[in-house]
């Protein structure tokens, strides 16, 4: 099979299958003349060539290209999610694209060790030429953060003024302003979670049932603890149960939830959190299987970006130590280390869902109506689905 980008015949000669003289060849299609002539080594220009500067440039360029692809996928996913109703065929496409982002991020995390083959001494040989250039000025990195849902108030102090590095670059500023004002992936995911079937207070009313289940479960635990003969063990268990009640209060009392949101310790709206918990509990039901996959991919994205930050910080310490300023003017290693906290986790609440889980036997059972709703496809009852055997979770059959 010949490469689709090369208009070559099987004998190797170049022909023009479109019948036009303007047929494109591989390099032309990919504009390789531009990409492959973009490795300007400052050490060469300064007549002191440093071999590893080439790797430094290529690595950054490769990152920027992949950032571009991530943004491309992210924009399309935001478009697909930006609707009151999301057909399940769209959910499949959303999953496919989020999974692609996850795979790219894995690649980006794994790319760090390649640059680490450069020694700090080699880096020192050309570092001075770079100043004041720094990854801190990567527009695409900031756009990616914003489009995912990183908010200015959650950034560490030094980073809250990240726009100033773009000075009077009107295009950059416009792109940043749009990325900050458009609904982020996190905003759209929350809207979608708020519509989780089963949350309706005049319907299945999951939240009320969940609260009752938690209370029954903790009461039962308390009764069992009271049978403990050893006083110290009994007191320990009772104290533990009381702590659990406090933890649950943080989700059942909306005012506690709002206080945590104000402190930046929780990000999701109250209703979105309920949707996420419900999907987690009933993820084995066909209709919640894809939503649950989606939530998992969102956590993967957050955790891979955190892993990239960590690998980058380690590389920075190895290259310039922890006492030197960055070429971008920050405190360098110290600044980067501060970005490793939960502040930058957009889907922090999903990671913390495990705090609120209860054992399977205590999960509120679904009633017939709800089971019917969650079984298979929108608008197709489980009875009918079982009857004609077309039960799939993607709604395509
Ligand atoms: C020898 C390798 C590297 C060193 C020593 C280094 C050093 C630094 C330092 C010190 C900072 C803090 C800002 C400042 O400059 O004051 C920074 C930020 C940053 N660097 Fe690197 N870097 C390296 C490689 C890379 C690579 C390959 C990328 C890929 C794109 C990258 C992307 C970034 C980004 C996005 C930031 C901003 C992070 C944030 O503000 O959260 N860096 N880097």
From TrEMBL:
InterPro entries in the cross-refs:
Trp/Indoleamine_2_3_dOase-like (IPR037217), Trp_2_3_dOase (IPR004981)
Q: How is the cofactor bound?
A: Binds 1 heme group per subunit.
- GO MF, one example: metal ion binding
Its recorded reaction(s) are: L-tryptophan + O2 = N-formyl-L-kynurenine
UniProt keywords, alphabetically: Dioxygenase, Heme, Iron, Metal-binding, Oxidoreductase, Tryptophan catabolism
Sites binding substrate sit at 161
Name the pathway: Amino-acid degradation; L-tryptophan degradation via kynurenine pathway; L-kynurenine from L-tryptophan: step 1/2; Pigment biosynthesis; ommochrome biosynthesis
Q: What cofactors does the UniProt entry give for this protein?
A: heme
Q: Which GO terms describe its biological process?
A: L-tryptophan catabolic process to acetyl-CoA; L-tryptophan catabolic process to kynurenine; ommochrome biosynthetic process
Query: Which SUPFAM superfamilies does the entry mention?
Result: Indolic compounds 2,3-dioxygenase-like (SSF140959)
Q: How does it assemble?
A: Homotetramer. Dimer of dimers.
Protein purpose: Heme-dependent dioxygenase that catalyzes the oxidative cleavage of the L-tryptophan (L-Trp) pyrrole ring and converts L-tryptophan to N-formyl-L-kynurenine. Catalyzes the oxidative cleavage of the indole moiety.
Q: Which family does it belong to?
A: Belongs to the tryptophan 2,3-dioxygenase family.
- Tell me the protein's name: Tryptophan 2,3-dioxygenase
